[in-house]
């Protein structure tokens, strides 16, 4: 258990959904909780008797058992009396999916938000939101959307945006990420990013942290919390509102003050939190940490199956601050034995037909990884097949490729250099199906996966910088 006041909130005995509905959609919290395995759910709606097989109660006071956490899905002007019922019930936390507060810019709505926050504090009820999706805690059966993995993992993510919270769960799950907690906290009138960062530091279930933050009144407190957290656990930070246009947008989204982009960049550097530019870059960083892609330097080998890929990939890698050193003579001689001369290259980048044939890939990768001139490998194993390709041939080729990779895995692990696998996405349904299947198979082997060579290179460069700065700050 984490030694932090927030921890009991992530382990409620029962959850009530006020304004519960049986309608399908992303805000059907009852359905999401049932799917996630939440043990005790109380739908509250005075106009229904049963929702999704569960008995419905007219108000919180009518619920027979204890309620620790409440999800509010009712209009803002009906929240105050519901809050009084929650206080009488002994509720300890409340998530306001309810919007229509300070983010509207209207003075009466700001006043309503202030009254609710003040009264919740008097009632000793912690508030998530308003204007947010709330909590995803697979270890406790909490979820705010259907389709979230039910198994937990070591990644935490804090987001002022519900869309970004959904993105990290769904897209991250496809890349092998599993989560200890994901919190969408919206306007952050009570529980905020700084408190969540301090919770992540104390939480033994959390090893890696990502955050999407638009702004908050006390940036100094967040900067301090980031420093404390990043000194112990890796942190990827996506800051919304870094430009003037983005800053204006944050005020209408979560009523946040965005702050100067230069200040945030400086704060991230001082904390050694990795500042990223998109949600996909956030996921890339978390994948890199989670699957051991931190290199011990900037020297990279690129392994592809095509001349154009090798040229373009070389440009991408060099432009992102990594180097493509020459391979040693011994490595080149061994690759010459494995790779036919025609249509290939045994320099760095390595253009090898083994990625097309699906054979000799294991000794090729083992030979390259053992080269003393290298710190990491980027290997593009996915490709575009096109709708005209024979499905049986394509699947057999992919199976051979996977078996070679599976054979190489123990040897590559012993060598200990990161091997970043690139499996590009595709709009072609046949290629997308093959790539998706290959992606899940290689994730099961423990490889970090990326959708492009630039994404892999950018992540390796950031991981190397993060590692170097962390080493420089280590005591002694």
Description of the molecule:
It is a single chain. By secondary structure, this protein is α/β, with parallel strands linked by helices. It has three domains: 1-133, Rossmann fold; 152-290, Rossmann fold (3-Layer(aba) Sandwich); 292-472, Succinyl-CoA synthetase domains (Rossmann fold, 3-Layer(aba) Sandwich). It has 16 helices and 18 strands. The chain has a six-stranded mixed β-sheet, sandwiched between helices. It has a five-stranded parallel β-sheet with strand order 2-1-5-6-7, sandwiched between helices. Strand 9, helix 4 (162-174) and strand 10 form a beta-alpha-beta unit. Helix 6 (219-230) packs parallel to helix 8, helix 9 (279-290) crosses helix 16 and helix 11 (329-338) runs antiparallel to helix 13. The longest helix has 25 residues, at 391-415. Residues 249-258 have low confidence and may be disordered.
CATH superfamily of the largest domain: Succinyl-CoA synthetase domains
Strand-pairing-aware structural class? alpha/beta
Just give the CATH class of the largest domain: Alpha Beta
Helix residue percentage: 40-55%
Tally of domains: 3
Rg for CA atoms: 25 Å
* Range of strand content: 5-15%
* Cα distance spanning the termini: 31 Å
Write down the overall mean pLDDT: 89
* Total number of helices: 16
* Shape label: elongated
Q: What is the tally of beta strands?
A: 18
Write the CATH fold name of the largest domain: Rossmann fold
Strand order of the largest sheet: 8-10-9-11-12-13
Quick structural summary:
The chain is built from 16 helices and 18 strands. With about 475 residues, the chain is of the alpha/beta class.
């Amino acid at each position: 258990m984490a030694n932090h006041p927030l921890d009991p909130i992530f382990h409620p005995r029962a959850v009530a959904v006020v304004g519960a509905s049986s309608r399908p959609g992303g805000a059907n919290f009852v359905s999401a909780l049932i799917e996630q395995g939440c043990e005790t759910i109380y739908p509250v709606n005075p106009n229904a008797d049963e929702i999704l097989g569960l008995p419905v109660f007219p108000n919180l006071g009518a619920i027979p058992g204890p309620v620790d956490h409440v999800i509010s899905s009712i209009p803002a002007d009906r929240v105050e009396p519901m809050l009084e019922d929650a206080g009488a019930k002994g509720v300890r936390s409340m998530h306001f999916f309810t919007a229509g507060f300070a983010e509207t810019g209207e003075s009466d709505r700001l006043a309503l938000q202030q009254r609710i926050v003040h009264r919740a504090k008097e009632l000793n009820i912690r508030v998530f939101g308003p204007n947010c999706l709330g909590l995803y805690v697979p270890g406790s059966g909490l979820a705010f959307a259907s389709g979230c993995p039910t198994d937990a993992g070591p990644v935490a993510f804090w987001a002022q945006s519900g869309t970004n919270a959904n993105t990290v769960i769904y897209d991250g799950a496809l890349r092998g990420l599993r989560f200890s907690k994901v919190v969408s906290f919206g306007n952050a009138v009570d529980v905020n990013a700084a408190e969540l960062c301090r919770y992540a530091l104390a939480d033994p279930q959390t090893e890696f942290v990502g955050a999407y933050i638009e702004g908050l009144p006390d940036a100094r407190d967040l900067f301090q919390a980031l420093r404390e957290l990043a000194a112990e656990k890796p942190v990827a930070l996506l800051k919304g509102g870094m430009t003037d246009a983005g800053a204006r947008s944050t005020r209408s989204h979560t009523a946040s003050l965005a702050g100067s982009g230069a200040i945030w960049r400086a704060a991230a550097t001082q904390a050694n939190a990795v500042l990223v530019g998109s949600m996909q870059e956030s996921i890339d960083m978390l994948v890199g940490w989670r699957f051991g892609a931190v290199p011990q330097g900037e020297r990279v080998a690129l392994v592809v199956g095509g001349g154009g890929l090798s040229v373009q990939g070389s440009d991408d890698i060099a432009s992102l601050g990594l180097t493509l050193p020459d391979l040693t003579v011994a490595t080149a001689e061994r690759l010459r034995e494995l790779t036919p001369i025609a249509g290939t290259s045994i320099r760095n980048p390595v253009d090898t037909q083994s990625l097309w044939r699906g054979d000799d890939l294991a000794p090729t990768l083992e030979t390259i990884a053992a080269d003393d001139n290298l710190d990491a490998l980027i290997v593009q194993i996915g490709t575009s097949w096109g709708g005209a390709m024979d499905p049986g041939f394509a699947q057999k080729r992919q199976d051979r490729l996977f078996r070679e990779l599976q054979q190489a895995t123990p040897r590559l692990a012993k060598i200990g250099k990161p091997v970043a696998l690139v499996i590009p996405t595709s709009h072609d349904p046949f290629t997308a199906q093959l790539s998706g299947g290959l992606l899940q198979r290689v994730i099961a082997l423990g490889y970090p996966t990326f959708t492009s060579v630039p994404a892999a290179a950018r992540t390796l460069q950031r991981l190397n910088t993060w590692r170097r700065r962390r080493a420089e700050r280590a005591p002694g």
